[in-house]
Amino acid sequence: MRQTTKEIGACGEQKAKLFLERRGYDIKETNWRFKRYEIDIIAGFEDLLVFVEVKTRSHSDVARPEGAVTRLQWGNIAQAAGVYMARNDYNWEVRFDIVAITLFQDGTNEIEHFKDIYFPGR
After folding, report:
1. Which residue ranges make up each domain of the chain?
2. Considering just the CA atoms, what is the radius of gyration of the chain in Å?
3. Coil, helix or strand at residue 23
4. Could you give the count of Cα atoms lying within 13 Å of 23 in the half-sphere of its Cβ?
5. How many C-beta atoms lie closer than 10 Å to residue 15's C-beta?
6. Architecture, CATH, for domain 5-114
7. Element (H, E) at 92
């Protein structure tokens, strides 16, 4: 039975969380929401606060997962990040990342971490 888009996304977010934790990231929030906007993962790493968008695709999809973050989505993420920072009195360096996950039919996956990838003009 084929997984739904929601199930694929949840699976990818769990894999991304474990991937980041294994690399020393301190996961502060998952699926943090402000109004209709959501940030998949908020993590501390060294002296940074990192906002992570997770994109998961099956291998049969044509587009690469990291290419699926639209200009509008970046704007929404940035707005939610600003609210998170204000609510937590955080006013130093941040970074926006993408964790792109490709799921294969044999149960394996490929994870790529794109750091400092926020492009407001995208």
Report:
1. 5-114
2. 14
3. coil
4. 14
5. 17
6. 3-Layer(aba) Sandwich (3.40)
7. none
Q: 18-71 pLDDT, tens per residue?
A: 999 999 999 999 999 998 889 999 999 999 999 999 998 876 555 665 667 778
Q: Does this model's pTM top 0.85?
A: yes
Measure the CA angle with vertex 26, ends 78 and 85; round to 5°: 30
- Collapse the DSSP code of 1 into the 3-class scheme (helix H, G, I; strand E, B; otherwise coil) and give the result: coil
List the beta bridge partners of residue 5: none
Q: How many residues can be counted in the chain?
A: 122
Provide the token pair at 96: 């926006």
| Model confidence at 74: pLDDT above 80 | yes
| Category of 28 on φ-ψ map: left (φ > 0), alpha (ψ -120 to 50) or beta | alpha
Sequence-ordered list of residues with C-beta below 8 angstroms from that of 14, at least 6 positions apart, any chain:
none
